[in-house]
Amino acid sequence: MKRWLLPLLVVVVVALSACGNTANNNSAAETNNSASEANASADNGGSANASSSTNSSANESSADTITYQSENGPIEVPANPQRVVMLSGHAGSLLKLGVPIAGTDSWAKANPNFKDQLQDVPEVSVENIESILNVKPDLIIASTDIQNADKLKQIAPLVTYTYNKVDYLTQVLEIGKAVNKEAEAAAWVADFKERAREAGEEIKAKIGADSTISIIEGDSKALYTFGDAWGRGTEIVYQAMGLKMPDKVKEMTAEAGYYDLSLEVLPEYMGDYVIYSKDSNADASFQETSTYKNIPAVKNNRVFEVEATGFYFNDALSLDYQLDFITQSLLGSN
C-alpha cells in the first residue's frame, strides 16, 4: 500500500467512529428520556404529559371507570359511583361503605335497620322501568334472576349476583369491589369476623358449647327453620360464632337451606335456645297451643322474638344489627 493512503485511512476511520458514537449517544439519550418520562408518569400516579391532550384524555377515561370482574365476566363500572340503584337486598352494604343510593326496592325501604337513612331515596322496581330511568343511575346492582335485565343494561352498567353463590361476607366484599370500595369492605369484614368470634366465645362460656340454637320464622303462610346460610342471623350463629344447630334442623335443611314446619313436628326442631324472626303478618296462633308451650325452650323463656323485616337479609348493616341482637339475647338469657 502506498504511504500516502495511510493518513487518508486514519481520517476515514476516525470519522466513522465519531459518527457511531454520536448515533449511540443519541439513541441512549432517547432511551433515557423515554425511561425518565415513564418514571415520571408512574411517580405521578400514571398521569400522562399534561401538554398532550390525547394522553390526558385517555387517562381521564381510565380514571372515570374501572373493570369489575363479575361472575358473568368483566364489566366497566364507574370508579366513583354517585347514583347507584340497588335491587339485590344489599342497600345496607352500600350505606355502610358510604356509597350514594339513587333508588332501591320496597324491601330495603322497609328495613328498620336503615329505614331512616333511605327516607328520601325513591322506591324503584324492575316492573316499572321508568321509575329507574327517572333517578338517572350510573350503576345498577341486582340479582341474576332480575326481570328486564336487557332494558336495565341500556340505562346503566348492570352488575348481578347469584344468591349464595359466594358466602355472605364474600358477597359484601364483592359489592365493595363493584363500587371501588374494596379496602373499606375488607376492613369491615375483618372487624365483623373478630366481633362475632369474640361474642361466640362469650356465649359458649355462658350457655355451654353443646347447647343448640334454632332459628325459625313465621309469615302469613307457614313456619320455617333454616340452615347455616339463609339470612335471619343463620350465618352469624352457625358460621361466625360456631354455635350448634339441632341435628334434625341440620338434616332437613341440608338440601334447600330451609324447611317448612308443621305444629306437630315443631318440638323436634326447637333447640335449647330459639331465635324467632316474626313477620308482623304471621299467623302466631301456634304460640297459644299446648304443643308450643310445652317445648323446653319456651318453658325456660329461651325464645327471642325479633321483627322479621330487620332480620331477612345479610347486608353489612343488617349483619351488624343481627350480631348485636343475638349476642345480647343469648348472653342475657337464663
TrEMBL record:
Q: Which GO terms describe its cellular component?
A: outer membrane-bounded periplasmic space
Question: According to its UniProt record, what is one Pfam family this protein matches?
Answer: Peripla_BP_2
Q: Where is this region: Disordered?
A: 23-64
Show the ranges annotated as biased composition (Low complexity): 23-63
Carries keyword Cell inner membrane?
no
Q: Write down the PROSITE patterns for this protein, in alphabetical order.
A: FE_B12_PBP (PS50983), PROKAR_LIPOPROTEIN (PS51257)
| Any one biological process term the GO annotation gives | iron coordination entity transport
Q: Which SUPFAM superfamilies match?
A: Helical backbone' metal receptor (SSF53807)
User: Which domain of life does this protein belong to?
Assistant: Bacteria
Tell me the leader sequence span: 1-23
Q: Which UniProt keywords apply?
A: Signal, Transport
List localization entries.
Answer: Cell envelope
Stretches assigned to the Fe/B12 periplasmic-binding domain: 82-334
Family as reported in the entry's similarity comment: Belongs to the bacterial solute-binding protein 8 family.
What this protein is called in its record is ABC transporter substrate-binding protein
